[in-house]
Amino acid sequence: MMPPAFEYMAPTDVDEAIDLLNRYGDDAKILAGGQSLLPLLKSRITSIPYLISLSEVKDISYITDGKNSLKIGAMTLDADLEYSPTVRKNFPILSDALGQLADPLVRNMGTVGGNLSHGDPSNDLPSVMLALDATFKIRGKSGEREVHSRDFYMDTFVTALEHGEILTEISVPYWPAASGGAYVKFRKGTWNFSVAGVAVQLQLDNEIVKKAGIAITSMGPTALKASEAENYLKGKKLTAENVRHAAELVVAASQPSSDSYGSVEYKKEILRRISVQAIKKAQTRAEVK
Amino acid sequence: MDLTEKLVSGKGNFVDDINMPGMLHLSFVRSPYARAKILRIKGGITWKDVDLKMASVGEGATKGFEYLEHPVLAKDYVGYVGQPVAAVYADSPYEAEDLAETSVEVDYEPLKAIVDPEMSLTAEPMYPGLKSNLLADKYLGADFEIKDAPVIIEDRFVNHRIATDPIEPRGIVAAYDGNRLTVWVSTQSVHSLKEGFCEIMHLEPESVRVIQTDTGGAFGLKGGIYPEYIVAAYLAMREKRPVKWIETRREHLLASRPGRGVVGKMKLYADRTGKILGIKGDVIVDSGAFAGGSGEFSARFIAMQLTGPYEIKNAYIHAMSVLTNKVPQGPYRGAGRPEAAFFIERMVDRLADELEMDPVEIRLKNATTAPYVSPTGLTVEASKPFLESAVKAMGYHDHVRKGNTGFGWFVLVPATMPGETARILVDGGTVKVWLGGNAHGQRHDLFVRSILSDELGIDPSVVEWQKGDTDQLEDGVGAWGSRSAMMGGSALVEAARKLRKEVENKYGKYSPQKLLEGKWDSYEFFHYDKPYNNLGANLITVHQDDLGVIHVRECISYYDLGKVLNMDNVIGQNAGGCAEGIGQTLYEGLMFDENGQMMTSSIADAGVVTADLVPRYKLLLHKSESSLPSRAKGLGEAPTIGTPVALARAIEVATGLRIRETPINPEYLLSAKKFH
Ligand SMILES: Cc1cc2nc3c(=O)[nH]c(=O)nc-3n(C[C@H](O)[C@H](O)[C@H](O)COP(=O)(O)OP(=O)(O)OC[C@H]3O[C@@H](n4cnc5c(N)ncnc54)[C@H](O)[C@@H]3O)c2cc1C
After folding, report:
1. Rounded distance, CA B411 to CA B344, Å?
2. How many contiguous H segments (helices) and E segments (strands) does chain B have?
3. d(CA B581, CA B569)
4. Residues whose CB falls within 8 Å of the CB of residue B267, separated by 6 or more in sequence, listed in order
5. Which of A5, A43, A189 sits opposite B607 (nearest CB)?
6. By three-state DSSP, how is residue A88 classified?
């Protein structure tokens, strides 16, 4: 479990990192927390001659309350976001996900930007960002652009990031009062990836759903937004029947494949159940506020 | 510093902590196929350099057939994914892994793999000259016929293979000074390893020294010798430079010997009062592609124990070990004992359900009231009184009333034979102790201190337990099979008594002062050639949540341990063994596809039990001292035997499903009626 040889570079600002990425082309990759990249290198599934670490880059790790949104620097550690008071208060859905993401050792190294850039359909943060309607700030040679989370995930390990681009910031819009969310994860063991995960964010108005954000983890080639379920809930009361039907629509949005963790039917059944749990939990949190 | 504190705070000295000037690092090129002909090998150290075969040493050692012997490095055939084919070395482990990827070419011609042990029974023989794929084939007991038995139950059970997964994988450092080979190794027995090196490499005993490093778990895996160790020794001797090999986790999962991998097909005859009239069965062990693992031996060992703590008058068991294209099976946590208990206890629970009787009532009905030797050869003391006190002490009936409770019990067959050695060296006021079996996480130092302060009246703090070293203790057996307190402890008691006598002879009267002032050296081989079995029981309660997941709520052990030498040892053994049993039942398993490729080659997929998945344990003692010098009885494997059976039953009660397999498939658990 020793990685093949690589050059390690640690530039101090983002533009320098972008220059290096462009200089070495396909031979280079960004190294963030290394919690996905290093296992790939160590098991020699891939080799990358130039690793450009963002660890020395200044001003890329922060959690700031903006006017309309929470701004998260890409190099923010999972653990820092997990324990952030503003996240705990405003986005319990994120605290849910982070508290169950891998184990504390991984969370002390792994970054939010790395988790979102990797494009692993089993990573937990992409579906949470999809549910929350987050946007990603991306910087490249020719400047900066914003991509909505919904347009970011293209295929397994393929995102809207072009080569030579770096994800620098995540903006999570504040949801109005009477909103709440939950992330429910079903996994084998304690520190493992999920068999199925579901993120639900709800905005209520006198028991009526005004807006819903729902997305799922480990249920297809990328994290998937369950738009039909979102639309269905809009304007409805969360009666048992409506919740059950929404869960059914979440399942309809899933594309699981069978593997050693279970058959397609099993995974759908689990997703059905955890979708109900997540909607109910989100509802309770929205009502409390 | 306390040993545990040292080991968990990074201050231990494990094999991989050893660094020597000029040290070479070894890496292996392994077979990507479960079964293939090798057409050509180019590069690296190959069988042309090390044309040796593995001998069989360690727990359950038997002599293999020549053509079934595991080659150190494959020659013209590979029998499992991960089998070592060539070795490379470099000044750093990084370069060694680079070379393993780039410097060796192997051409294979893949053959159809034999993966399923039951299919292997009828498959074409794996090797030319074999008549079948049976590696061992024995009948135990005597055939019988019961005409018109009122109840006949047949069933089939599987315990899938599991990785031993010690936190520290296998590893070795070998060095050669021109005369003598010295190896530092993570092991359960320096003596068994020394024997292995001598036998396989044709070395004289004087020219080999095996030294144990701190050993981070072993669970049966580290009692034996492996091809990688032989190559390390070979290279150290050839290059006259120290050589290190450290196993990766992936190598561990693929190519170190896993446990379990056993199918039990059972048939039980009973009358309608619940009295068992007889059992028949097939035990089929998935032995792997070569002899020399524990496979050949374990089918018979399991078959022998199938009568359990019961007075079963008729028993006839076919014990089969079959060849498959997998790494040879090895001894692991209980090594055959948990499998036997799983098969018979599941059958007794089935009988209880069939007759709508309480499971313990059925067990009481079939328990023995006097010492008993079963038709398969299992020795049992009067088990009924034990069961009665277990039921009472554990509050069985209260638990059953509350629901979701399972109970199981068993005969523990410790690996007593042929006894064990110990040495006590007193010098400069300290007392050094070596045992013939080498602790690999159990803290033998604790009971060693307890025994010596009792026997010699000395302050425990002057006692220094030593790791294994073949230069310090001339011979020994090993730490496995629930034997250390019984056999190692007895050897130590005898050595201490000998010492006491020597002091008495010299000074007329024994005193700790006299002992500590002098220089003394006492060695003892405590010989023991009989079984010394004891009884144990477990009770478990569970809860099934809305997603079908089982949560273990309570795990109570009721064991006959004899004299408790040290309570911390006992608590540790119970906790670790129960966790293992829970792991086997719910989380851990090695799975293969139809080509013999492992589908669980990461620790996440192979499963491991973590702290949040285990309950609080409760340990109750049924104390009746043994007649051994240490007064102890066996313990280590007891919870690995009792936990899976009690847990399987608790899950049956909670879910209404029949449990026939470990690990239990979560998907199966969600098929429980209450969910649909
Ligand atoms: C044992 C274990 C269990 C795990 N379990 C989970 C789990 O349950 N849930 C979960 O979500 N994750 C899990 N992970 C993955 C973990 O969350 C990783 O930290 C995460 O996927 C990647 O983040 P990183 O900072 O470590 O990125 P790295 O591993 O350094 O990088 C990952 C990829 O993203 C790219 N990248 C990183 N940052 C940027 C950026 N700012 N801009 C552009 N590209 C970038 C890299 O080039 C690389 O391709 C687990 C990891 C381990 C080791």
Report:
1. 12
2. 18, 25
3. 18
4. B152, B153, B154, B279, B280, B281
5. A189
6. helix
Specify whether the CB–CB gap between B321 and B298 falls below 8 A: yes
pLDDT band at B65 (very low <50, low <70, confident <90, very high): low
Order across the sheet with A28-31: list the strands: A7-9, A50-53, A28-31
Q: Which of A29, A106, A219 to mutate to test the pocket of ligand 1 (most atoms within 8 A of CB)?
A: A106
User: The tokens 């337990």 sit on which residue?
Assistant: B465
B86 close to B44: Cβ distance less than 8 angstroms:
yes
Sequence ranges of the domains in chain A: 7-53, 61-173, 179-288
Does the CB atom of residue A36 touch ligand 1 within 6 A? yes
pLDDT for B61? 42
- At A226-255, the pLDDT tens digits run 999 999 999 999 999 999 999 999 999 999
Tokens 């570079």: give the residue: A9
The percentage of chain B sitting over the pLDDT mark of 70, rounded to a whole number, equals 98
Encoding tokens for residue B252?
A: 């561990």
Mutate to test the pocket of ligand 1, among A52, A98, A107, A117 (most ligand atoms within 8 A of CB): A117
Name the CATH architecture for the domain at A7-53.
Answer: 2-Layer Sandwich (3.30)
pLDDT at B59: 45
Residue B499's nearest CA partner among B455, B533, B563, B543 is B455
- DSSP lists the bridge partners of residue B209 as B182
- Say how many Å lie between the CA of residue A137 and the centre of ligand 1: 18
Residues present in chain A in total: 289
CB of B446 closer than 8 Å to CB of B497 = no
% of chain A beyond a pLDDT of 90: 95
Per-residue pLDDT band for B292 (boundaries 50, 70, 90) equals confident
The alpha-carbon gap from B223 to the nearest alpha carbon of chain A, in Å, equals: 25
Whether CATH 1.10.10.10 fits A61-173: no
Ligand 1 within 6 A of CB of A32? yes
Please report the residues numbered 608 through 627 in chain B whose beta carbons come closer than 8 angstroms to any beta carbon of chain A.
608, 610-613
In the block, tokens 């988790």 appear at: A115
| Overall average pLDDT of the A62-82 stretch | 97
The ipTM value here is 0.93
Q: What is the dihedral of CA B31, B33, B35, B36, to 10 degrees?
A: -80
Distance A115 CA to ligand 1 centre (A): 4
Peptide bond into B418 cis (omega under 30): yes
Atom of ligand 1 nearest to the CA of A168: 41
**What tokens appear for B295 in the block?**
């496979």
**What whole-number distance in Å separates Cα of residue B26 and Cα of residue B22?**
13
CA angle, corner B443, sides to B442 and B449, nearest 5? 140
Mutate to test the interface with A, among B30, B91, B97 (most CBs of A within 10 A): B97
**A179-288: CATH class:** alpha beta
Tokens of B381: 């003391």
Q: Which domains does chain B have, with CATH numbers?
A: 3-111+170-246 (3.90.1170.50), 262-414+531-671 (3.30.365.10), 419-527 (3.30.365.10)
Q: Please compute the mean of the pLDDT values over residues B334-339 and round it to a whole number.
A: 97
Per residue in B75-128, pLDDT tens? Answer: 999 999 999 999 999 999 999 999 999 999 999 999 999 999 999 999 999 998
Q: What is the distance between the alpha carbons of residues A140 and A21, in angstroms, rounded to a whole number? A: 10
CB B472 within 8 A of CB B466: yes
Q: Phi, psi (5° rounding) for residue B579?
A: -60, -40
Classified as helix, coil or strand, A210 is strand
8 Å CB contact of B101 and A44: yes
pTM of the full predicted structure?
Answer: 0.96
pLDDT at B58 over 80: no
Rg, C-alpha atoms of chain A:
19
> Which whole-number Å values give the CA distances from B496 to A116, B5, B451, B484, B499, in the listed order?
64, 28, 9, 16, 5
The per-residue pLDDT for B60 is 43
